[in-house]
C-alpha cells in the first residue's frame, strides 16, 4: 500500500447528548455516519443521504443541521443533540415528543426523529405562530406517509405548552 492509498484517520472529540466521545474517522465521514455506524446512535435516520428529506436532522449548538451534509470533523468542540438526547434523564419526554404521540403525528415513523428535531428548533426559533408558518419552517422534512396535518397539530400543541 502506498502513502496515497492509505486510509488516513483523524481523532475527533465529540460531545453528543451531553456525553463526550472520542473516535478516529476518515476526514470525509459525515456526522450521520459517525452517529449511526461508529457510535450506535441510530435514532437519526439516513433517508436520502443528499440533504433533501430531513430525516437526519440533528442540532448543533442548538441549530438544526442535516447530519448527512455535515462532516463529523466540522462539529468537533460543538454541542450535538440527537433524538436520543431530547428526553430527560428520567425518561420524561420533551414537549414535542409527547405532542407527536398525543396527536398521532406519524405513521411508519421513519421521518419522525427528524420531524421532531426540526419541530423543537422551529418552536425555539419562534416560527410556530400559525399553521402556515409551521408548514413553511417544517418544509425541509418530508413524510412519505402524508402525516402532515397531525405533524402540524403536534407542533402547534407543543408550541403552546412551551410558551405557557
What do you see in this structure?
The protein has two domains: 10-85, Beta-grasp domain (Ubiquitin-like (UB roll), Roll); 95-163, Orthogonal Bundle (DNA polymerase, domain 1), CATH 1.10.150.120. 32% of the residues lie in helices and 15% in strands. The protein has five helices and five strands, in the order E-E-H-E-E-E-H-H-H-H. A five-stranded mixed beta sheet has the order 2-1-5-3-4, with helices on both faces. A hairpin with a 2-residue loop joins strand 1 (10-16) and strand 2. The N and C termini lie far apart (62 Å). The mean pLDDT is 95.
Summarize the structure.
Pfam families: Fer2, Fer2_2. This protein has 5 helices and 5 strands.
Question: What's the arrangement of secondary structure elements?
Answer:
Elements: E1 10-16, E2 19-25, H1 31-38, E3 57-60, E4 63-66, E5 79-81, H2 95-102, H3 112-124, H4 131-137, H5 148-163
Parallel strand pairs: 1-5
Antiparallel strand pairs: 1-2, 3-4, 3-5
Helix pairs in contact: 2-5, 3-5
Protein name: (2Fe-2S)-binding protein
Organism: Mesorhizobium caraganae
Domain 2Fe-2S ferredoxin-type: 10-86
Features:
164 residues; alpha+beta; Ubiquitin-like (UB roll); DNA polymerase, domain 1; 2 domains; five-stranded mixed beta sheet; 5 helices; 5 strands; 2Fe-2S-bd; iron; metal-binding
